[in-house]
Amino acid sequence: MSISQLMNSYIEKSSWIRRMFEEGLKLKKLYGEDKVFDLSLGNPDLPPPTEVKEALRKFAEEYNPAFHRYMPNAGFPYVREIMAKKVSEEQKINISFNEIIMTCGAAGGLNIIFKALLDPGDEVLFPSPFFVEYFFYVENHQGRPIPVPTKEDFSLDIEAFERRITPKTKAVLINSPNNPTGQVYTEREIRELSQLLEEKSRAYGKVIYLISDEPYRNLVFDDVEVPSIFHYYKNSFVAYSFSKELSLAGERIGFVAVHPEMENKEKVIDALILANRILGFVNAPALAQRLVAECAFAKVAVEIYKKRRDLLCEILKEGGLEFVKPKGSFFMFPKTPIDDLKFCEILKEELILAVPGRGFGVPNHIRVAFCVPEETLQKMRPNFLKACEKAKKML
Question: Which of 30, 161, 170, 222 has the most CB atoms within 10 Å of its CB?
């Protein structure tokens, strides 16, 4: 075989979303862009807030060739100062720029965290359903990914975590608001998880870290608040991205924040900065760093996503599908009346693209993204209801 066996297995595992994307391209070519309803990709379609355009205009007017030079591997100090202020507000705990490392999005952040922490065979636990890339990120650094089932409403099952934590557990990774479910973990869940990790850390005589992946932190609805993990657990990290809240997915910009009271903090930060360099990131993109420094407290029009969520809930309800109403993100994860692969095939017959739930570790569900215009959802409605009727006849 010309490629590694590991990468070959990854191609198989990661193919669901990519496969749907490629199916969408084929269908659009056959039937036209406006006739195909692609709910498979989490690609934010809202325009960035006005602050982004204003910042880019400012950079063009004040252009300096030095904008593009190398900087410290952790990022521009003045940018990190601004990110520290943002994290201090959101996490309700004061941190300094020394505890911020600018990264190539939250994905780059998670990879430097795992590179810094994991020895071969160390386990990383995360709730299931899960973002499929978590498997790859952990295994990139010779760790063992361990999915942990959630409750029926996708909330954390603390007892399930307790059963799966072992002396090999190095970290627990959570994602709230969650992709693919839209669930937001409550303050009680975060507190109980933190208490469990403290107990297990004492019992095993080692630190078990808590990592929070937060690209959707500021995409929440109905006055829901995302709890602070820093408030409850000192051996914790936040991996952050501006891809969703500023609609800057292609710019690959985010950061890692380290709890200011973390044990061996200086050594951990040194390892994160070195990982940023030796993984080939070197540093986060210079222009993107300057951009988010100007826009760190802005966000897209979240009420538009909320309106789309409510419309999609209506359509799913009309189709007779069971679902948990998302509290954040731009995803839903409804149950399917039949096998998820078969249901996705029926949807495709109606020119609708969704991702089978097994791609996120939980079959008999689909992930649908509502980062598409409201008109698209309205036009899709009869097709979706027709697909639901077809599926019910197969029961």
Answer: 161
8 Å CB contact between 269 and 242: no
Which residue, among 330, 376, 299, has the nearest Cα to 44 in the 3D structure? 330
Q: How confident is the model at residue 22 (pLDDT cuts 50, 70, 90)?
A: confident
Nearest C-alpha neighbor of 315 from the set 388, 253, 226, 265: 388
Mean predicted confidence (pLDDT) in 193-201: 98
The pair of three-digit structure tokens given for residue 30, joined into one six-digit string: 């056959």
Q: For residue 321, give the 3-state DSSP assignment.
A: coil
Structure tokens at 110: 């998670």
Chain segment 368-395, per-residue pLDDT in tens: 999 999 999 999 999 999 999 999 988 8
Task: Name which of 297, 187, 199, 174 is nearest 242 in CA terms.
Answer: 297
Q: Which CATH class is domain 5-47+300-393?
A: alpha beta
Residues of the chain with CATH 3.90.1150.10: 5-47+300-393
